[in-house]
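hiii so my PI (J.) wants the whole complex modelled not just the main chain, which honestly fair. so below is everything: three entries, each one labled with what it is. i double checked the lines twice but i was tired so who knows lol
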Amino acid sequence: MRLIKKAANGLWLLSLVAVLTACGGNNENEAGSLNEGKDTISISGSTSVGPLAEKLAFNYEENQDVNIEINQIGSSAGITNAISGVSEIGMSSRDLKPEEKESGLDETVIAYDGIVVVVHPSNKVDNLTTEQVKQIFTGKITNWKQLGGDDKEIVVVSREDGSGSRDAFQEIVGYTSGELVKSSIIASGNGNIKTTVATNEHAIGFISFEYIDESISTVKINGVEATAENVLRQKYSLSRPFLFVYKKDHLTDAGQQFIDYILSPEGQAIVSETGAISLH
Amino acid sequence: MRRFKDNLLRGLLWFSALLTVAILVVIVGYIFFKGFRLISLDFIFGDYSPTGGGGIWPMIITTIYTIVISLLIATPIGILAAVYLQEYAKQGRLVKMIRFATESLTGIPSIIYGLFGAVFFVATLKLGMSIIAASLTLTIIVLPVIIRTTEEALKTVPHQYREGSLALGATKLQTLYKVILPSAMPGILSGIILSIGRIVGESAAIFLTAGTVAAMPESIFSSARTLTVHSYLVTQEAGDIELAAAIGIVLIVIILVLNLLATFISKKLNKADY
Amino acid sequence: MASLPIENQTTNNRKSNKKKYFLENVSSKVFLFCALLSVFSLLLIIGFVFYKGSHPFIAEGYSFIDFIFGTDWVPSEDQFGIFPMIVASVYATIGALIIGVPVGLFTAIFLSELAPKSMAKIISPAVQLLAGIPSVLYGVFGLAIIVPFLQNNLGLAKGQSLLAVILVLAIMMLPTIVTVAETAIRAVPKTYREGSLALGASEIGTIFKVVVPAAKSGIMAAIVLGLGRAIGETMAVILVAGNSLIIPTSLTDSMRPLTTNIALEMGYAFGTHQEMLFATGIVLFSFILLLNFVLAKISSRGGN
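here's the output for the full assembly
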């Protein structure tokens, strides 16, 4: 009996505490923001830029007294956040659209990145022309046999509409979202494309250079190998910039210093380390 | 004929139960098999490192924060709401409306809660992408679960208990707090366990309200990443099923411990009851 | 007490009664308030989603009919048709129900009625544990095991398919259905069973003709909760659905349910595209409200 009483009492106490907590929530909020001692730089945007930005922030925070929050929510959302001021800096893996530029955004290129067409390691096809890539992704070529491979149906894997990587890829290859073959698998991240292709002999997809590993094999475009060198020599056409976008009046000193750090030789060394292409 | 039908049904019952158990064993087995190599003290208590090889301590802390805060709000409200529905309300339009609302809340996809939370808590109430915004969103998500299970638990309390207590001169409130709630406690606890499961398992709603910052949260007003969001992101972005499975092991162990704890508590209460 | 003068005793009683009534009154108001909070939350969420989602049709001149029956979804080219996703959602949910509900209910019946006590004592908590496993892990499991299995054994070009989604959803709704239904069935008074058995009914007959109907409302709750989990699931589905924008015509087609559409594109969407995702949410909502309405009707008829 005593136990029941204790439990019941506990329950009532809990309700009381909870109601008080719920009501007190807003006041605590103000106190919380007052207590912040460190500068916080909020960054959001592209999932392709994200891993690189996290590594840069990790190294930067070791020596600086700042707190960098990075949210990987996609290029377009990051750009929108930078415009609205929700985030100080937006990350984009595609060029800004005219209407985005008009809203007063500044951009800094922090690195370049290549997009590589990937297939299953067992696939014999290792070179495609831009035209062939276009025909595959628009559903005009549907069997690997047509490209000198095995008699297997082609399974196209693409990113979602609005992804920075997809926008850049489509623009360079020369087809539109409306033309993309409808039965294509839509994967919501670079890693998702990679695992899909790595586990399917029929598949073809495209990923950022940072994600290349031995689980997939890369395809040459017009006979050119997908390497950082070839991107810099402008031989390899599937490349795009990694951008930090911000409004000048939203950018704090801490934010500016972080950008300066990324552009410094030390920052650019980290860029190369992660598989992206440094500016130098 | 009747015996044949009975045996067929009996066989189906056995088969279904075995199937359910087999699925449990296969899933948990696979996750353990795939992820156990990564499990170590450094993995659990280590700070996250974007360069690889780091731990998941910040995500564990974030997960605990979200569980505690949302349950602290949802449990009392949910229990009291269920008490109203079962013990106080006269059957009528109001009760129908409340029931309809609770059931509808259950069916709303978590992604819509996420959208709502992202604009209401994050933007309108200016909480920002934060643990508190995610917790408040989660509160609404688990509220119907707690109401529903508490109601079911209250239904199981025999009528004689209430009548006996009232006949002895206790008020309705005293009856509730000294007789009904204690005997409904095991059922209520199972509702809370389901809720913890839902909170720990939630990804879509948290993803949009707490953000994805992979660092130790400085306060409940910081943006952070729960364990589940982390395992989603490593699967999606890095395609790292081994790491996702390792996080899965941690999640399963957390759930297991909570379950054992709850069973233990409800057993204690049950003993005290008889 | 007995030594007190009679008058004094009555005033004392009156005072404490007043206090009691006051407490009773206040507490019942507090309980009502808590119960109304869920109504308030629902209204807030509905109002919000409808406001956002109806904007393109009211203010921007998009046709709602084209939205529902259009077969092309190309946000970057201003085409918003969700018919393929509606079909995909309906198929996936029905498929998951066909597998998940019978297996779940039968397991619940087994655990509460047939299973030896020692067995139920192990299995019931284990199933509860299964309910706590984050859905993302089901997705990881589906992607790592179910998808390759379908691909290799059915000779498909891709394992991401309607069938994979159905299997993952069915597995995921199982524990919820089992746990809630088991509680409901256990709550059926012993006298029911004894009465039926005494009248000469068999054990199995008693279970299906007396116990299960008596636990109907709880079982309905179990199904609603399980269904809620299946419909609400997005992240696990993203991993195994393939997310293709076609109307599925067979179990092996890859497809994109409504929830997945929202989750997949919300991060990137802004402007009209974002509002159209809210509109997708409205459609989802309407399905769920309709479903709840139907289930409420069924269970109230059962009650009579």
